Amino acid sequence: MRMKGKNVIVTGGASGIGLASVERCLQEGASVVIADLEGSDGQARAAELDDRYDGRCLFKACDVTDTAQVDRLFEETVAELGSVEAVFNNAGIGGITPSDEVTDEDFLRIIDINLNGVFRVARAALKVMYRQGGGSIVNCASILGVFGQSQTAAYTAAKGGVVNMTRTLGIEAATKGVRVNAIGPGYIDTPLLEALDDDMIEGLISLHPMGRLGRAEEVANAFLFLASDEASFVTGTTLMVDGGFTAGK
Ligand code: NDP
User: Fold this and answer.
1) Of 66, 34, 60, 69, nearest to 49 (Cα)?
2) Among 67, 82, 92, 216, fewest CB within 10 Å belongs to which?
3) Reported ipTM exceeds the 0.90 cut
4) Rounded to an integer, what distance in angstroms lies between the CA atom of residue 35 and that of residue 79?
5) Where are the alpha helices (DSSP H) in 139-215?
6) Which domains does the chain have, with CATH numbers?
7) Count of CB atoms within 10 A of residue 141's CB?
């Protein structure tokens, strides 16, 4: 029960890594807000999980590209649950296109969700956590925040930005009781990979020394560690959860 009495917000919590993290937090005694797009499975997932666990599980519609929606998410959560001890800044989208063909619209959309969205959520979280005098923010980066990969200019730029922004936020918040870290997942078997064909998946698997994709629960476990008091002296860093990908091959 590492998260007993804590309230957690997970953006992009209706699917994949986010949903697995929501459930792990509930298993450890937290109350959790699934923050995801209107029309996602979030509402149904939250109702189902709320029935199954002692902690509360709520759904709040929130598009991380909209500052007003992000700020409202935090205001409503504090009004209903009283505080926010941990945030998983996890919402994100993929995008694979040759760089000479990427449109402004597609490039800016990936940056707006995967980088600007992370900042909007972190800023709102810092305000609440500074008032409370503590909290933990975990940003979702990627192996592609520290490695390049062909045809992913916007995604790698955004994730690289998340890795370095996490250092800055970690330093800035360090004396205010708030820790800010990131997770760098390798390729994880979630709906995000549905756009890739079997040959591409095989190629990606071969880049992981462990010879397989990761599972969403394995990333959720890393989130749980960074969110919990067990990581009380950990800030400004990125924890890779990548089956050895960034260690080399
Ligand atoms: P999923 O697509 O399964 O989940 C992402 C969730 O974010 C979805 O519910 C999605 O909604 C939601 N979302 C998308 N746009 C927004 C938005 N503007 N505002 C709020 N929510 C939004 O992907 P994963 O679980 O795989 O990805 C989670 C995170 O992990 C992402 O940041 C991703 O970049 C990162 N990651 C994933 C890896 C992988 O291999 N799977 C590897 C490394 C990092 P909808 O489905 O409706 O679009």
Assistant:
1) 34
2) 82
3) yes
4) 15
5) 153-173, 198-206
6) 7-241 (3.40.50.720)
7) 29
